[in-house]
């Protein structure tokens, strides 16, 4: 069985915003550039990357070639990488420079060693109600995630979430399907058009305790 990719919300990416813990997203994927920052610590070419920590930098790239965008240098009429925020790690200098070390192999944006997952194309809020304790929790999830992955997210609020039956409108949810595939429609757009607070009117998922608590 092929392992499913790990999905991240933009909010999850945004908290990794320091040189000691630096993530970015681009072209729909999420990358952990912390090792790159450690390797090039103190290098001025890290500055544009550090300033973009926790953000989406898809605008740095050509969506067709998956490579850095280019433009014509007005002084030399040569095609060079387009770096409006300044040249960064693995980008060659605009002019010949014998001091530039190009023995790094694959540039970081083409190196899957930094890849940690997929950026969700659409996140949504869901309300989970524990019928045993009457507690409810609103969490942000990725629309691409199946229910077991959403259950994993909920574990930090209830470590025994796996010992509950998950239901929507009285029907057991298929934990191997997404919210949409389980008939829980995404109503964000409708809420927006009606100027409604979607936190208040979220369709709830109910958890029913199964008796056999999993071991903590």
TrEMBL record:
Gene Ontology cellular-component terms listed: axoneme
Q: What is its main location?
A: cytoplasm
Presence of keyword Transport:
no
Q: Which InterPro entries match?
A: Cyt_B5-like_heme/steroid-bd (IPR001199), Cyt_B5-like_heme/steroid_sf (IPR036400), Cytochrome_b5_domain (IPR052320)
Q: Which SMART domains match?
A: Cyt-b5
Pfam families membership: Cyt-b5
The record's subcellular location field reads:
Cytoplasm, Cytoskeleton, Cilium axoneme
Every copy of the Cytochrome b5 heme-binding domain together lies at 5-71
Keyword line: Cell projection, Cytoplasm, Cytoskeleton, Heme, Iron, Metal-binding
What GO molecular-function term can you cite, just one?
A: metal ion binding
Q: Which PROSITE patterns does the entry link to?
A: CYTOCHROME_B5_2
Q: Which PANTHER family match?
A: CYTOCHROME B5 DOMAIN-CONTAINING PROTEIN 1
Name the family: Belongs to the cytochrome b5 family.
Q: Could you tell me what this protein does?
A: Radial spoke stalk protein that binds heme under oxidizing conditions. Required for the coordinated beating of multiple cilia maybe by functioning in a redox signaling pathway.
Q: What is this protein called?
A: Cytochrome b5 domain-containing protein 1
Biological classification of the source? Eukaryota, Metazoa, Spiralia, Lophotrochozoa, Mollusca
């Amino acid at each position: 069985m092929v392992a499913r990719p790990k999905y991240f919300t933009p909010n999850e990416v945004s908290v990794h915003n320091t040189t000691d813990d630096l993530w970015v997203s681009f072209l729909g994927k999420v990358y952990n550039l912390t090792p790159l920052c450690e390797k090039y610590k103190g290098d001025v070419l890290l500055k544009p990357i550090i300033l973009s920590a926790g953000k989406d930098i898809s605008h740095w790239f050509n969506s067709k070639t998956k490579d850095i965008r280019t433009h014509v240098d007005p002084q030399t009429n040569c095609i060079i990488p387009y770096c409006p925020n300044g040249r960064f790690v693995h980008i060659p200098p605009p002019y010949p420079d014998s001091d530039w070390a190009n023995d790094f192999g694959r540039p970081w944006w083409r190196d899957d060693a930094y890849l940690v997952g997929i950026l969700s194309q659409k996140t949504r809020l869901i309300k989970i109600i524990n019928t045993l304790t009457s507690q409810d929790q609103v969490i942000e999830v990725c629309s691409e995630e199946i229910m077991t992955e959403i259950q994993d997210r909920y574990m930090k609020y209830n470590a025994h979430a796996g010992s509950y039956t998950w239901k929507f409108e009285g029907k057991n949810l298929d934990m191997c399907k997404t919210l949409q595939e389980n008939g829980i429609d995404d109503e964000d757009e409708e809420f927006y058009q009606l100027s409604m607070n979607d936190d208040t009117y979220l369709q709830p998922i109910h958890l029913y305790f199964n008796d056999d608590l999993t071991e903590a």
